[in-house]
Amino acid sequence: MPHQAVPSVLQKIVDTKRQELVRAKQQQSWHDLEQIAATNRDDIRDFAGSLRKAGIRVIAEVKKASPSKGIIAPNFDAVATAVGYEQAGAACLSVLTDTDYFQGSDAYLLQVRQAVSLPVLRKDFMIEPYHILQSRALGADCILLIMACLSDAQVAELHELALKLGMSVLIECHDEIEVERALRLPAHRQNVYGVNNRNLHNFDVSLDTTLRLKTLFPQDSLLVTESGIHSAEDVKLMLGHDIHAFLIGEQFMKTGDAGSALAKLLAQSQQSA
Ligand SMILES: O=P(O)(O)OC[C@@H](O)[C@@H](O)c1c[nH]c2ccccc12
């Protein structure tokens, strides 16, 4: 891989997260978060368990914008979207909380989690234990760990804390080396392995990434294919390779009626699947 002279978007996002953390810690101490997380302790939904159920399992994403596409949903309404997804048969939800690059918000996570009974992933770029505890305080049932922006030591620490707090962990990989690193984490039934079809450094999308990397995972791993799923054909392709869990955002959000788009995709994918 050529050396990247210009910092990739991913690197920029991580720099932003470092700055955000300084401010966040001034507003809410670790101790504050611990207290909130303690009151939420019994209110946790089994994200990994929901994905393990039979059928096509979709993690439907509440996403207003992205660095690659700009504004995806001009009339964005987080709660209405989430309720629509639940009614349409989503297995789980994903809520973007990053503000600067995805126009998400922690408030959306809180609101969505209250409005539905599905397990909810906090989709953000987590780099410190503070993020993990903060996620649980916000009600998250699952957190995201992006291998591409974390060292082995960081991933191990964040993974351990998330499990200790009772959450599932979506461990995201986008190449062979990241899969190898991810598989060195302790096995746990709350581990969910995501293969991101979007290269986070240059935004290229290829569903082949999932098919290529799938062979590296032990058979009983809980695998999610992420990004760039647009059609029932895409879903059927994955089902044909024994992949039953999908993380899908843009395709639903861009229609303006995300729930209906999910219902339609599920119906079409079940036909002679
Ligand atoms: O909108 P899409 O192409 O359906 O993709 C959803 C999801 O996979 C994508 O938003 C995503 C996957 N991993 C991420 C990490 C950070 C931010 C966003 C993402």
UniProtKB/TrEMBL annotation:
Transmembrane segments: none
Pathway linked to the protein: Amino-acid biosynthesis; L-tryptophan biosynthesis; L-tryptophan from chorismate: step 4/5
Every Indole-3-glycerol phosphate synthase domain range: 10-264
Alphabetical list of PROSITE patterns matching this protein: IGPS (PS00614)
Tree of life domain: Bacteria
A Pfam family of this chain: IGPS
Keywords tagged on the record: Amino-acid biosynthesis, Aromatic amino acid biosynthesis, Decarboxylase, Lyase, Tryptophan biosynthesis
Enzyme class (EC, first level): lyase
Record field: catalytic activity: 1-(2-carboxyphenylamino)-1-deoxy-D-ribulose 5-phosphate + H(+) = (1S,2R)-1-C-(indol-3-yl)glycerol 3-phosphate + CO2 + H2O
EC assignment: 4.1.1.48
CDD domains: IGPS (cd00331)
GO MF annotations in UniProt: indole-3-glycerol-phosphate synthase activity
InterPro entries (alphabetical): Aldolase_TIM, Indole-3-glycerol_P_synth, Indole-3-glycerol_P_synth_dom, Indole-3-GlycerolPSynthase_CS, RibuloseP-bd_barrel
Family of this protein: Belongs to the TrpC family.
PANTHER family per UniProt: INDOLE-3-GLYCEROL-PHOSPHATE SYNTHASE, TRYPTOPHAN BIOSYNTHESIS PROTEIN
The protein, known as: Indole-3-glycerol phosphate synthase
Organism this protein belongs to: Enhydrobacter aerosaccus
